[in-house]
Each structure stands twice: as structure tokens, then as C-alpha cells.
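Data availability (excerpt). All sequences and predicted C-alpha cell strings are deposited with the supplementary files. A representative entry, Helix-turn-helix domain-containing protein, is shown inline so that the format can be inspected without opening the archive.
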Amino acid sequence: MSMTDEVDPRSSLWGLIGFYLRFLRTSKGLTGAEAGKIAGCAPSTISRIETGAQLMSTKHAARLDEAWRTGGLFTLLIYYAVRATTPDWFQSYLSHEQGADRVRMFAGQYVPGLFQTPEYAQALLAEGRAKDKKAALERRMARQEILSRPNPPEVWVIIAQTVLEWPVGGKNVFKAQLARLLSLSEQPNISIRVVPGTAGAYEGMDGPFMITTGREGEIAFAEAPNAGRLVAHLEEVNDFVIRFDRIGMLALPVGPSRDLIKKNMEQMT
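C-alpha cell line:
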């Protein structure tokens, strides 16, 4: 990792966290692997945090603070980072997702990023406005690492039937994406349910959203074009929890949802 990969500590509180991680690690003469062992993560995670490609989780922060006797520096910085007034609310949400015990998502237009194949994600990004599409793709794929960690979170996802019918990236890419959904749905910690088109108008038509549950409680994120909004206030988060439950009342059970995904995949010839 070269010095040119350093994150600008003035860019955001997350940039400051990455800066101080590298500063303290190198001050102690530690390698990325050694710091990763202390934090309980891979060396590549340390590298991505230091360069701003990934956010430090609260679990990693707590371990580093204790081992390095920082006085709670990283934990406090994360506390303020997730509550900061910033247009990049999604980065704050990701910090919670990385340490979450449970993630709930609703998507009415496209497959959630947590489940996207690289090709499907690339097709979406190609039509978006990300300045560095390659970096955006790398961040999206890195986000999926929580699905393969030793103790992965419970992930409950509800998608609209239209998500299964819009061939993003072309037939081959889309068929592979549907196969990916089927494979994920077989994991014991993952539930994928589909709201059928016969449901008519429902609350999910307001837009996609996500809810994470972890040690610090529940946080919601409402998606919007070019931005989004982090929701931390308990009463408003509860509104999203209720919305998720109401949408779930209209969704097919897990088995029939899986059958519908398989049916759409088989039709992609």
C-alpha cells in the first residue's frame, strides 16, 4: 500500500478514522496482518479502512480501543460519524450493517446490493452517476463479506415481483443473478420473499429501505436517487419496522417465493 493511498482526514469523520488507524498502527510498528489480528478481521479489511474503501465496524473499534488504550477514540469517532450531517448517509449506514446481527430490506426495483452478482451490479453502475465505477463496484462486493463471516447476520429480504422480471444486464447476466438469489435463499440465515404483482398498491411503492439491528439498537436507511437518509430516531425507525411487517403480510411465503424465482430464471432462455 503506497502513501498515495492515504485517505484525506479532512474528507469526513470516516476519513479521520482511517487516518488514525494507519497513524496508530504504524506508530506501533504493526503490519496490517498484526492489526487485523487485534481487531478481529482480515489484513485486507485494515487496508480498506485505511484507504477509505470500507468503514470500521463498532466491533473492530472496541477491540482496537481496548488493545491500544485509546480512551475509546475509535468508538467515539464512529458514534459521531454515524450521526453526522452528511450527504453520504449510506456510508454511515454501512458501518451499522457490518456489525449487525439482523438486516431487513425491501426492494421494489432491483436486487439489493448485498445480493448482487458483480455483473448485475456493473450493469446498474454503468447507467448510474458514480464517478469511479470500478471503485464503486469493489465497495459493493466488499460489502457482501458479512454474508460469509463466521457468524453471519440474519438477513430478511422482501422484493417486488417486478425485480424478478426486469432483465438488468441482459438475459445471461440476469439469469445468473436469479440463480444467485436461489442459492442465497437456501442459506439458513437468509430469507427472501416476493410481493406478487396481484398485491396491487402497497406501502413498498414509496421506495426501498433497510433496517439493521445490532448492539447499538436499530437504524434504518431510506434510499433515494443520488442520496438517501439515515434514520436513527427510535420512533421513526419503528415506523420502518412496521412498514416492513405490513409489506411482509402481502408477500408470498419463502417456499412459493423460491418457486417464483426459479420459474423466472427458467424462462430466461
